[in-house]
User: Fold this.
Amino acid sequence: IYDPAGKVEQLKREAERLWNGVPAPWTRQQQDQWRYEVLDLMQDIDDVLAEDPDAAAYMMGLAMQRVIEGYYRLNGFWEPKAKYVLADLAQRHPEMAFQFRLIISGRQSLTARFQALAQLVDAVQKPLGGYLESYETEPEAVEPFGEGKGGESGR
Assistant:
């Protein structure tokens, strides 16, 4: 590649710096949104636990992924590829990895697995103050339906 200005080398150094660094910490708004999304998932799981165990198990998988994402992000680690997560967690936090494996294995009742997941959520969210009971974003201006720019009806 012909690069007399050295832009390629500059981009390479920047990529290496980012790769070897830590992920940018979440803003307070991102933390709160994550906490609320996890709470919402946990409430939805609780709502269907008795009458639709398959839906509950599916959502538990989603919640576990969000909890893992939060654990890595809040602790300043890059989240590894999915196939390496449990092995990486075993190195960083053996008890958490053990709990995730118990939940995934299905060796316990669905209710017991849900309770174990709730304990993991509590542990990961504790430094932020635990579950976020409500969440509000800044209002955004939205054009009324059917109105385009310049007063056009959009039809």
